[in-house]
Amino acid sequence: MLGIVPDIDPAIVSLIIVPTFIFFARICDVTIGTMRIIFVARGMKMVAPILGFVEVFIWIIAIGQIFQNLTNPLNYFAYAAGFGTGNYVGMLVEERLAMGLSLIRIITQRDATNLIDYLRAAGYGVTVIDAQGKQGPGKVIFSVIKRKNIKDVENAIHEFAPKAFYSVEDIRRAAEGTFPIAPSPTPFRLNRGTRRGK
């Protein structure tokens, strides 16, 4: 890298430019690696190999700078810091993309009519099963939703069934299904005199 920037003081290159380059290179390759693992888990066979190629290519460049500057401990710190930061950034990027489907399971022991009506009106496919729990009869509500809609469904649960138990699981593959066509509306408020269900 010294040969690429001959007009800059070698000390500045060694102490600032090279560690900074390694740090950001590691962020890039680890972020891509995190995405690649997620895509592999979701069975996306075309995207994962391409990301793997880019990931390894960037890694080779970064590790090459390490071997060219073995006496600089800042490079090791930058390498490790970039790795940790890359994991965090990768999870943020994946969360923003919110690709794929999730199964949301809601268990409620009170009347869930308002919640069910809202979900169906918003375009979600909903399956309701009668259940018997420790504290008496209840409902189990299942819905396969797009991951980008998880927050909307969670908001509806907090609004209409604030004490309900719910869990969210990723789904690798699903056939058919009912999903909202347009962005789902914001959950409407219940009247003050209406009793919230669970």
UniProtKB/TrEMBL annotation:
Enumerate the transmembrane spans.
12-34, 46-67, 73-93
- Domain DUF5698: from-to ranges: 34-91
Please indicate if the UniProt record lists Metal-binding as a keyword: no
Protein's membrane topology: Multi-pass membrane protein
The signal peptide, as residue positions, is: none
Q: Where in the cell is it found?
A: Cell membrane
A GO cellular component annotation here is: plasma membrane
Cite the entry's keywords alphabetically: Cell membrane, Membrane, Transmembrane, Transmembrane helix
Q: Where is the DUF2179 domain?
A: 124-173
Q: What family does the database annotate?
A: Belongs to the UPF0316 family.
Q: What is this protein called?
A: UPF0316 protein BN140_1178
Q: Which species?
A: Methanoculleus bourgensis (strain ATCC 43281 / DSM 3045 / OCM 15 / MS2)
